[in-house]
Amino acid sequence: MKSIHISELTPISATHPGEILADELEARAIKQQAFAQQIGMQKSQLNEIIKGKRAINAEVAVLIEAALGVSADFWLNAQNNYDLALVKIQRKVQERIEAIATWNTMQVALNMQKRGTRILD
After folding, report:
1. What is the pLDDT of residue 52?
2. I need a surface site. Which of 5, 64, 82, 99 has the fewest CB within 10 A?
3. Mean pLDDT on 88-117
4. Residue-wise over 8-38: b if at least 16 C-beta within 10 A, else e?
């Protein structure tokens, strides 16, 4: 039986890093308005991040790190993981991934056949 690597699994949902940021602010009893002011961002921009309508980019990640002490790498990785999860959830992408896997399997079989290796059933 073929083992499945975790990167091959399709996520059920994706968590935007803005949700994580909202939880962090709530845990520290920091209001969005005060945090936006602290990092020099419009409250509306921060709210868009928290609601998942805006991505956390490198600049914002560095500002959050300075304000909360949570590394910029964490925020960028969370954004990247979210983006990847969204893509993997899309049915069209899943169908293309499955087609690629089938093609790869066929290529392995053809290469084995060319070398005269017997393919076991």
Report:
1. 97
2. 5
3. 81
4. eeeeeebebbbbbbbeebeeeeeebeebbee
